[in-house]
Amino acid sequence: MSVPPSAEPALSPDSQLPPEVPGIAAVLVTQRAVHLVVAVAGDWEAARAATVAEAEQRCEAAQDFADSEAFRARYPGRVGVVRLQTQHPPPEIVLQVLTERGVEIEVTSEPPQGDKTCALCQRAHLTEQLVAMTDEGWACPSCFRAWLLLQEDRKKPRGEKLLARLSSRLIYPLLGVVVALFVLGVLYELRRLNQAHHIIRQHLPTE
Ligand SMILES: [Zn+2]
After folding, report:
1. Which residues are in the CB-under-5-Å shell of ion ligand 1?
2. Residues facing 138 on adjacent strands
3. From ligand 1's centre to the CA of 149, what distance in Å?
4. How many CB atoms lie within 10 A of CB 14?
5. How far is the CA of 159 from the centre of ligand 1 (A)?
6. pLDDT digits (tens, 9 = 90+) for 75-128
7. What are the C-alpha distances in Å from 88 to residues 7, 109, 121?
8. What is the Å distance from ligand 1's center to 123 Cα?
9. DSSP characters for 12-53?
10. How far does the centroid of ligand 1 lie from the alpha carbon of residue 107, in Å?
11. Which are the contacts of 86, defined by CB distance < 8 A and separation ≥ 6?
C-alpha cells in the first residue's frame, strides 16, 4: 500500500510513530493536539468491502489509542484526533459515518486548492468550507475538533469543582435544618397528642 508523500513539513518521520498502533502512517504534533493520520489505498470500487473494513479498523485503532493511557503518557496535555487519508473519495455513507465519529477524511488525489492556512498546524491551501474560526485563527477540521474537545474539557472540571465546593459548603447547614425540622415536628406532634389525651380524658365518664 503506498501513501502519497505529504506536503506538510510538520509530519513526523517513521521513527517517531507510536509503536502501539501499527496502522498509523503519520503523526502531526501541534501545541495542544496530535493528528493521528491513518491511510488506506482507497479502492472503493473494486474492493469496497475490504476497503471499508480497513478504513474503519484503522480509524478505530487510532481513536482507541487517542483515548488510551499510553497516548496521555506519550503526549501529555494533548488531545488526539484521527485523520484518514485515502487516494480516492469514499462512498457517501462511509464519509458520513466516519465524519460523525470525528474523523477528518482527506482525498489525496484531490487536495484542496484554497487560500486558508491552519493557524494551529500550518496546513496550507485549505478552502473556506474546510476551515473554522477559533480564538487563535483559522483551524483545519482536525485542529478544530481538537480545539472543541479541549474547550469541553476545560469547562467540565471547573463546573464539577464548583459543584463539589458548593455541596461541601451546603451539606452541613442543610443537614442541620433537616434535623431541626424533624425535632420540631416531633415536639409538635407530641404536644398535639398530649392535648388530645387531655381532651379525651375530660370527656371520659368519671364513674
Ligand atoms: Zn490544523
Report:
1. 118, 120-121, 123, 140, 143
2. 133
3. 14
4. 8
5. 29
6. 999 999 999 999 999 999 999 999 999 999 999 999 999 999 999 999 999 999
7. 18, 6, 24
8. 6
9. PPGGGS-TT-TTEEEEEE-SSEEEEEEEE---TTTTHHHHHH
10. 16
11. 39, 40, 41, 42, 44, 55, 105, 106, 107, 108
Residue 102 CA to ligand 1 center (angstroms) comes to 14
User: Which tens digits make up the pLDDT trace of 9-30?
Assistant: 456 656 678 887 888 999 999 9
**The residue to which cell 489525496 is assigned:** 108
Q: pTM for the full model?
A: 0.69
Cα of 192 vs centre of ligand 1, distance in Å, is: 75
Burial degree of 163 (CB within 10 A; 0-12, 13-18, 19+): exposed
Q: Give me ligand 1 centre to Cα 18, in Å.
A: 20
Distance 33 CA to ligand 1 centre (A): 9
Distance 117 CA to ligand 1 centre (A): 8
Which grid cell is 51? 476497503
Total residue length of the chain: 207
